[in-house]
């Protein structure tokens, strides 16, 4: 009888571990679902964005994804957490904006605004690395957002099909506040 009780307790501990793993996966999927707008949702006006949610820990997947930069003593886990709270507005999804957006997303920026009023053309493809044959004719902001989401689905992308102007500049920039440094 005692062996049976011990065996059942071991099985229960194993099931608890499995449940914890499944709960973690579910939380990750729910976070991605909340943070990513549908791929076809393109902002054609400036709307107020909610603040990024504060994170206190990294998931196992994030630790694996960002492991090389986490090893840097100047960066570490705290640096990665701060980066996940940062937001950047990239004005122009062309020859300079594409690699900038790509590297910010790969590093794990929290939110990435992608603003461009133009559409992808064949003559863009040799230098605008986020766009491809399959996105010709699409707004560049949407094409770039799709590529960024494939690269790192944990990054919130906000594509804007707008021309940057004195009428919308302040509203747009206010959506992407500068990072606040803390003195440690």
Automatic annotation (TrEMBL):
<protein>
    <recommendedName>
        <fullName>THIF-type NAD/FAD binding fold domain-containing protein</fullName>
    </recommendedName>
</protein>
<dbReference type="GO" id="GO:0005737">
    <property type="term" value="C:cytoplasm"/>
</dbReference>
<dbReference type="Pfam" id="PF00899">
    <property type="entry name" value="ThiF"/>
</dbReference>
<dbReference type="GO" id="GO:0016779">
    <property type="term" value="F:nucleotidyltransferase activity"/>
</dbReference>
<dbReference type="GO" id="GO:0004792">
    <property type="term" value="F:thiosulfate-cyanide sulfurtransferase activity"/>
</dbReference>
<dbReference type="GO" id="GO:0002143">
    <property type="term" value="P:tRNA wobble position uridine thiolation"/>
</dbReference>
<dbReference type="GO" id="GO:0042292">
    <property type="term" value="F:URM1 activating enzyme activity"/>
</dbReference>
<dbReference type="GO" id="GO:0032447">
    <property type="term" value="P:protein urmylation"/>
</dbReference>
<dbReference type="InterPro" id="IPR000594">
    <property type="entry name" value="ThiF_NAD_FAD-bd"/>
</dbReference>
<dbReference type="InterPro" id="IPR035985">
    <property type="entry name" value="Ubiquitin-activating_enz"/>
</dbReference>
<dbReference type="InterPro" id="IPR045886">
    <property type="entry name" value="ThiF/MoeB/HesA"/>
</dbReference>
<feature type="domain" description="THIF-type NAD/FAD binding fold">
    <location>
        <begin position="66"/>
        <end position="176"/>
    </location>
</feature>
